[in-house]
Amino acid sequence: MSISDAIYRPFETLIRPLDLPYRPLPAKGPVAVLLHFISMFRGVLIALALASMAIEAINLTIIWGLSVIVDGVTQKGAPAFLHSEWPLLAFLGLLIFPGMPIASFLLNTFNSHTLGVGMPAAIQWQGHKAVERQDLAFFHDLFAGQVASRLSQVVSSVQQQIIIAFQTGPRFLLQMIGSVILLMSLSWQLALPVIVWIALNVALAIRMAPTFAERSRRTAKQRSLVAGAITDLYTNMQMIKQFAAEDSEAGAIRRVIQKSVQTQHSEQRIYRTSELIVVALNMVLWLAMLSIGFSGLVKGFLTVGEFVGAVYILQRLSSHTFTFLQMGQQIFQAIGTIKDAMPVLTTPPTITDRPDAKSLMVSRGEIRFENVDFAYKSGKPVIDRLSLTVRPGEKVGLVGLSGAGKTTLANLLLRFYDIRDGAILIDGQDIREVTQASLRRAIGVIAQDVALLHRSVGDNIRYGRPEATKDEIEAVAKMASADGFIADLADGEGRRGYDAFVGDRGIKLSGGQRQRVAIARVLLKDAPILVLDEATSALDSESEAAIQERLNFVMEGKTVIAIAHRLSTIARMDRIVVLDHGRIVEEGRPDELVEQDGLFARLWKRQTGGFIPEDIDELFSASPAT
Ligand SMILES: Nc1ncnc2c1ncn2[C@@H]1O[C@H](COP(=O)(O)OP(=O)(O)OP(=O)(O)O)[C@@H](O)[C@H]1O
């Protein structure tokens, strides 16, 4: 172990942020959130408070010692004083050196390594675990940037609060009490104005507290709105540029920044005004102390030593009033910030696993929707007493006008939302009674808008099964016809092939390439049930044919629910279910439905330009599902 390790490692391992078990945050208010974290780091914080107070005690002892020296030397003369009081001098000398520098170094290291790195990382990790547990609906309702910004604001606020509560605060308190006691021991006449001064400062803080808290909360909210708006803008930059809307969007950002500036000004005004009052109180205190001090010297109720000690204490006290003010400001800013972020961190997720939830066991892959009723928050029914059974291995195509509820139905199967009434069963197991993870592991999804993470293309495929080997990844990429373009991939950092990064959300790949990566990913996952949400925008017919062929491959032997838009997909389904306003209005083989001349036939005619082939059966049988 190196010397550096020996010195710093103990401080670095006092808090192991990622080893702490997740504990849900209380929803009772900012103070409860603070207490939650304080109890998490209690051992470390008690040590911190003791260490800070020890340093302050050393400081006060040194001041007391100095005043004793000044008085002793004045009264007895230096040689006599040195002779009789050398143990005191030696003790003070040791406190000044090496006592104070060593203690300060240890406290600073504790501050920087344990409290400055370990503690915020632990708060960040706990906050992330709280956010990660939220339902999908939560992420749909909020700007991602706003959530991230609230979380990072909370991290620094909680850290700051804890340091104030256990370091600056106790030290300051001890300094106040110690100074008053020391002053009283020197002269009660000098202590009196200090007591009045402290009382006035405390009264001022209590009087201003609600205003501080409210203005700080508004500032925190506005700050997270700015972060949210900016993230939303950057995420949608392509669309913004397509509409050449940079200027109007800049206008919108300008407005939120403007609002944020206003709230910050209003917050700062109140702080600066209270600062002025505190400065005025300080001046009055100095005047009072100096008047009492000089008159004490003249009238003889004070010695020079007492006067010097008092002036020194006063100087320290008044220079610390700004620490006191800053502390107040930080406390209220932190409370405001935590209050603003509470909904993000403490809203309990509505979709949770039951305590006795088991893993879903899929033996056949039958899906049953029984009298399912569902509405989003707005309350308008989106799925209306819908019953549907998908047999094991059956391929069902969901068709319907836009807004009919097709995507919603697929999302209900994945339990992204809980239904209001009825039940959804997979092989007879209610999806609310199994763990969400096992449910989602059993369902492969290829969504309209293929989401890829900004990682290597290989890692994006591996998402289907994290433990997959390189060979398995290459095999599925080949099956998805993705191997060809992957071999040619290169990114700006010089990574090639499977190691090349795909850009945020896969932006560096074409739509068809993204689809192929998604197919490879689902092939690797090899889940018994497949949900396919087909993109409405048509790929060029050659790509479509290629993708369709790959999809057939993925669908083999699986139970499939496909939100089908393309005729080529519809034609391959065993059964079509036509949805309208969350209800099944038609159902049957595609060819039967065309002949029924209902909603499906209308949609079909629209897509084929009114062309209905004479021999429909032949058209459908031309491309069997499996
Ligand atoms: N997250 C949401 N919150 C609130 N309402 C929603 C949400 N998602 C969808 N809706 C509403 O639910 C209804 C059904 O939407 P859904 O996306 O299921 O339709 P769809 O049939 O898949 O449409 P499309 O073919 O256009 O994708 C619509 O009225 C839509 O506005």
Question: How would you characterize the overall build of this protein?
Answer:
There is one protein chain. With 626 residues, this protein is of the alpha/beta class. Among the domains are: 18-346, ABC transporter transmembrane region fold, CATH 1.20.1560.10; 451-526, Rossmann fold. It has helices at 3-12, 30-40, 42-76, 78-132, 136-141, 144-186, 188-235, 237-242, 246-299, 304-319, 321-346, 406-413, 436-441, 457-462, 470-479, 483-488, 511-525, 541-555, 567-572, 590-596, 599-608, 616-621; strands spanning 367-375, 381-390, 395-400, 421-426, 429-430, 443-446, 529-533, 559-563, 575-580, 583-588. The strands form two sheets. It has a six-stranded mixed β-sheet with strand order 6-7-8-3-9-10, with helices on both faces. The chain is elongated, with a radius of gyration of 35 Å. Bound molecules: adenosine-5'-triphosphate (ATP).
